[in-house]
Amino acid sequence: MQIKQRLKINAIASAITVFIIIIVSSLTLYKIYQAVEESNIANRLMATTLERVALRIDYQRTGDKRAKEQWVAKHEQLGQLLKEASHIFRDAEDKKTINEMINTQESVGRIFAAIVSNREEKLSGPHHADLSQEVENLLLSQLNMRVYTNTLQVGKLQKSSTEVLFSALRLGGGGIVSVLAILIAAAVINSWTMSRAITNRVRMLRDGALVIGGGDLDHKIDVKGDDEFAELSDAFNDMTVKLRGSYHDLEREINERRRADEQLQKAYGELEERVQERTKELKELNDTLEQRISERTVELRAANETLRDSRVAALNLMRDALDARKETEVTNEELEFSNKELESFIYSVSHDLRGPLRHISGFADLLMKDMAGKLDEKGKRYLSRVCAGSERMSRLIDDLLNLSRISRQEIERNEVNVSTMAASVIAVLREAHPGRSVEVDIKEGLTASADPGLIEVVLSNLLGNAWKFTAKTEHAFIELGATEQRDKIIYYVRDNGAGFDQQYAGKMFWPFHRLHSESEFEGTGIGLAIVDRIVRRHGGKIWAEGAEGKGATVYFSLA
Amino acid sequence: MIFIVDDSPTDIELTTIALKAIGREIVVRSATDGKSALAMLRNGLGMPELILLDLKMPGMGGIEVLREIRTDDRLRDLPVVVVTSSALESDRVDAIAAEASDYIQKPLGLDQFSKDLESVLHRWLPN
């Protein structure tokens, strides 16, 4: 049973009890009132009866007419009281007694009338005095007997009224006490069972909550019944099930996060390892670079006195930058770094070196034009040397810019017909030097997948060099061909010209580095450096074979 | 009047000589840095017919001077020719982007420079 219903029962029982107590009390009061009324009239009956006796005795003694009238009046009063009493008393026994009293009253009236007439006859007539007295005595004894009976009956009524009073008090007291006793007993029993039920169930819920709170989400609280605690326990179990669901979700999520975190940690560790490796490499590279730079800086300072010296310094710096690039190709960062350095170097070459050169050249021009008359032949010759030097310097700068441009240019590979391209380069050379007679052999059908513009630069440099270095050869011969090595095409340009000392073969490809003097063969020494750059940017290799006076062969691949 | 802005007095001299060599009657004024060039343009110099502007100058560079001119209501329409010894393509692009009227890469020879200047003058100052 639900606690709410139990509490309701307690309330209803109390209400009924109060109602019953009110009814019982009303009944008791009514009965007490009745008893008081009955007692009252009985007392008045007794008093009136006794007064009538006194008046009769008075009349008997005096025979007075006034006494007789007083008696009659009292007698009538008593009759009235009896009538009233017959209405008030309810009990059947009492009603019977009253009826008897009414009868007795009537006979008392008749006897008194007989006594009165006997006395009046004695006074008026010649009767015998003795006889008259005897009659009166007889009548008096009858009357007394009646009155006596009457008095007994009044006493009976008095007693009856007292009994009514007592029964009312019994009813009131006993009824209220027993109703209260029953109510208290019921309430105590109801409350006791209720409190037992509540305590037990609260304890079960508390124990269950402790178990669940301790982490056992599978625990089920088993409170049976149809009361609020059973509902609470059901709600609690529902909550536990949902909690278990959320807990499992949470656990799964935590596991996933932990796994992800571990992977992240692992990746981070690997990354850190790699960063450390790279940092170490970079540091090593940086150290060598720094060392070289500081070495070269010293050289640069020393070599800065003359234009020629500064050219060498620029060459060294350039070579350092290129060397640095060769070494640092492993990492993009390094490349970017040296590219930036190279760019700022190129910028100053382009702008800062060109400026003063223009001044030299400009004013030398002015001297030649405006002051030629004031110079002797020697002076003019010197001046022309200055002009030639400026022009050569300007060409060097342009070549240097070309080299830098090629280093940075994006490569766009296309199918290139190398043979056709070489033939047109040779055609240009023949046109530029119509006096030369050179035998040229270009292998048919050579192709390459490479940047066409850059390949043209490679071919015009290599074929141009071959053309240049065969200038002093009697039967000049130039060959362009290709062989295959491990699935790679190796192109080569061969000539029978001046050749070179194989010992310095590697240096040919450094910028500004020449194996022949300017007076022998003109040139800036940048052409092969450009070719080297282009070939390596295509992922290929370049090398040369030769001997002094016996021609040279330059080999290259493009992948 | 032609206004030369160049940080090198030698360059100003060479440019002046190259301009005179064209054979037209030309008044030349000059400034050796960007700030004073702008100050002269704004106060007292009078309106030049053409400006020859160097790019690389200490402090305020040529591109900045050009931008100032192009945002100044009075100077906005002046022909400004960028004249530089730089051979970098990026410098040319920057100058055009900053609304340079023309661009000359200073050649080595004085004669060639004179010819380059003459064609620029012909384009911007036909008279």
Q: Would you write up a description of this structure?
A:
The complex is a heterodimer of chains A (559) and B (127). In chain A, helix 8 runs parallel beside helix 11 (527-537). Chain A is an alpha+beta fold. Chain A has three domains: 3-184, de novo design (two linked rop proteins), CATH 1.20.1440.210; 303-408; 410-559, Histidine kinase-like ATPase, C-terminal domain (Heat Shock Protein 90), CATH 3.30.565. The longest helix of chain A is centred in the first third of the chain and has 85 residues, at 129-213. Chain A has helices spanning 3-62, 65-88, 92-124, 129-213, 228-302, 307-327, 332-370, 377-408, 418-432, 452-469, 527-537, and strands at 414-417, 438-442, 447-450, 476-485, 488-495, 542-546, 552-556. In chain A, the strands form two sheets. Chain A has a five-stranded mixed sheet. A two-stranded antiparallel ribbon of chain A has the order 1-3. In chain A, strand 4 and strand 5 (488-495) form a beta hairpin. The mean pLDDT of chain A is 84. Chain B is of the alpha/beta class and 127 residues long. Chain B has a five-stranded parallel sheet, with helices on both faces. Chain B has a single domain (2-115), classed as 3-Layer(aba) Sandwich (Rossmann fold), CATH 3.40.50.2300. Chain B has five helices and five strands, in the order βαβαβαβαβα. Chain B has helices at residues 9-20, 34-42, 62-70, 89-97, 110-124, and strands at residues 2-5, 28-31, 50-53, 80-84, 102-105. The mean pLDDT of chain B is 89.
How would you summarize the topology of this molecule?
The complex is a heterodimer of chains A (559) and B (127).
Chain A: H1 3-62, H2 65-88, H3 92-124, H4 129-213, H5 228-302, H6 307-327, H7 332-370, H8 377-408, E1 414-417, H9 418-432, E2 438-442, E3 447-450, H10 452-469, E4 476-485, E5 488-495, H11 527-537, E6 542-546, E7 552-556
Parallel strand pairs in A: 2-4
Antiparallel strand pairs in A: 1-3, 4-5, 5-7, 6-7
Chain B: E1 2-5, H1 9-20, E2 28-31, H2 34-42, E3 50-53, H3 62-70, E4 80-84, H4 89-97, E5 102-105, H5 110-124
Parallel strand pairs in B: 1-2, 1-3, 3-4, 4-5
